[in-house]
Each structure stands twice: as C-alpha cells, then as structure tokens.
Amino acid sequence: MPEDETKIDDLMLGVSWNGITATQERIQKIDDKANNTLTFSGVLMVVISGFLIGLIDKIHPFIVVFITVDLLLLSVGMYYAFETIWLKKQEFLDVLTTFKSLDLTNSSQASIDLSLSIAAWQQRAEIIGNWKSDHLLKSMKYVRGALIFIIIIALISVGGYLAPILCNL
Predict the structure, then answer these.
(1) For the chain, what is the domain count?
(2) Host domain of residue 140
(3) Cα(166)–Cα(153) distance, integer angstroms
(4) What's the gap between Cα 107 and its chain centre?
(5) Among 22, 41, 114, 136, which residue's CB has the most CB atoms within a 10 Å radius?
(6) Can you give the pTM of this predicted structure?
(7) Which tens digit of pLDDT belongs to each residue from 64-120?
C-alpha cells in the first residue's frame, strides 16, 4: 500500500509541476508577442509620422485624415500591448512559507499539501494568462486595423496617380 501512495503522491506533484511549467511558458509567449507588437507598432509609427511630416504639403487632406486614423489605431494597439506586458504582475510561489506549512512527519500529506499549493498558484497564474491573452488580442486587432488602413492609403495614392494616366490612354 505505501508504494501505491508514493506513486499517487508523485503523480500529483508531477501534474502540478507540469501545470506550472505550461502556464509559465504560455505567459512568456504572450509577453513576447506583446513585446514584438509593441516594437513593430513603434517602428511603423515613426516611419508613418516621418512620411507625414516630410510630405504634409504634398499630400491630399483626405489622405492626411487616413494617416491620422492609422496613427491613432497604432497608438491604441501599442497601449494594449504595453498593458499586456506591464499591468498584471505574476505572483511567485512562496516556497519557504509553503514548506514551513507542510507537515513533514507525514510525507503523503505533505506531498498532497504541496500539490494543492502548486495547483492554487497555477490557477492564479492561469487567470493572469487569460487576462494577458485578451489584451494581446485587442492590441493585435488595432494593429491589424492600422495595417489595413495603410493598404487603403496605398491603394488610394496609387489610384490617384494612375487615374490621369489611364484616362489619357
């Protein structure tokens, strides 16, 4: 019977520990994607702003409105990406307090208590991961909208230059 209890204890600890690892990896991937979105949006904003400032007198006011909307969408996308990375802090499992609370005279109960502590921490981390995922999706939607506006601006600009040429053919 003690061998079966040991196997069950090991299984519980293994599942709990694998849950922590998977949650940590998920949160890290979300943070990496948000960081990449933030960087890409920032570079794109600088390029678009430079283009707008350099050619403001040569651009049709209609295009200036589209570029302004594009910059606004990128700004909101950057805000959500920044919020994904910055606002929600992740808690760490307080190992010392957890170990002090364990009854080390009963190894089976100590293993169960440790598994439950790890599972509770993992559940809190999962909530944070879901929150971060939602904000990353919002960020990506706004950046995607900004990219669509860039394509629209390019099509309008190219169409404006090609229309007189095509009409003269």
Answers:
(1) 1
(2) 2-156
(3) 19
(4) 40
(5) 41
(6) 0.76
(7) 898 999 999 999 999 999 999 875 555 565 666 766 677 767 777 777 787 788 888
